[in-house]
């Protein structure tokens, strides 16, 4: 029956889409962690070089260098904050997708049960109609 297959096909497509989104989410998290690790490595090297520069030029005025360092640190911190916010948005999106998936599954089960009950009522109705017809005189 093609009408019975349609919900299963739609559900299968949604399952595939959900799995694809979950896989993409995992890949994005891995990428995010790699970027954070790279950023931490760059910053540690930058700090080490700045420390060496400041130690080598103690007698020179280090304030402009410190200002540049502070500005860069602030910019990097804001970028890290944005990355964390993006990660939180992705986490919430996955949660919403999961909730929607469970709602669809619940609704499908509810409709299947209702369909079964209606078919039983229809079957009972047909049987009583046929019995009533047999009792009528010709």
TrEMBL record:
The keyword Coiled coil applies. Keywords: Coiled coil. Residues 101-128 form a coiled coil. Belongs to the SIKE family. This is Suppressor of IKBKE 1. It comes from Origma solitaria.
């Amino acid at each position: 029956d093609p009408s019975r297959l349609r919900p299963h096909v739609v559900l299968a497509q949604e399952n595939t889409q959900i799995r694809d989104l979950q896989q993409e989410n995992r890949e994005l998290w891995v990428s995010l962690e790699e970027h954070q690790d790279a950023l931490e490595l760059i910053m540690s090297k930058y700090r080490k070089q700045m420390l060496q520069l400041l130690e080598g030029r103690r007698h020179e005025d280090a304030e402009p260098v410190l200002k540049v360092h502070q500005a860069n640190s602030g910019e990097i911190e804001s970028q890290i904050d944005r990355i964390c916010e993006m990660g939180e948005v992705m986490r919430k999106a996955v949660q919403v997708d999961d909730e929607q998936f469970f709602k669809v599954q619940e609704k499908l089960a509810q409709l299947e049960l209702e369909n079964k009950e209606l078919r039983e009522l229809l079957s009972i109705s047909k049987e009583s109609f046929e019995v009533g017809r047999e009792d009528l005189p010709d």
